[in-house]
Amino acid sequence: MRETDFQFIERVLALRYPQSQISLLQANSDDRIKEVLYIARALFTDIQKSPYRERIIVVLDSVHSAGLPGQIAALGIPEENIVRWSKNGIEHLYPPAVLDGIFNGGGQLTITDTDLVPTFLGT
């Protein structure tokens, strides 16, 4: 996750849950997600019995290691707390008004393997 992605998610959570104290951890890779969860498991002894069990949420891009959601669930995270984005990347979650302001018009952001720069297609 890039720093700007982290800041975007952090701000969205602060706006959505203004009365809550939320800790956001940046994992950056499938292996790092598991490492962070192993640390949490060591801190809480048993995530299954921890009062924090329902408060741990893992967000995955649409592209991740085969079996990763199952491995995360095996570490004690409830299935409903494993969020899988339908597309690969946070840029697909930005509000259309933000993209319109950046790219001067309506349309949809499209990122392809052959493009080094995102293409903005008007509607």
Gist of the model:
With 123 residues, the protein is an alpha+beta fold.
Roughly what percent helix? 25-40%
Major sheet summary line:
2 strands, parallel
Number of beta-strand segments = 4
Average pLDDT taken over every residue: 78
Radius of gyration: 17 Å
Strand content: 5-15%
What is the rounded distance between the termini?
29 Å
Task: Decide which structural class fits the backbone.
Answer: alpha+beta
Low-confidence stretches: 115-123
Biggest β-sheet: strands ordered side by side in the sheet: 1-2
Give me the strand/helix succession: HHEHEHEE
Number of contiguous helices = 4
Based on Cα principal axes, name the global outline. Answer: globular
Strand-helix topology:
Layout: H1 3-16, H2 30-44, E1 58-60, H3 68-74, E2 82-84, H4 96-103, E3 108-110, E4 119-121
Parallel strand pairs: 1-2
Antiparallel strand pairs: 3-4
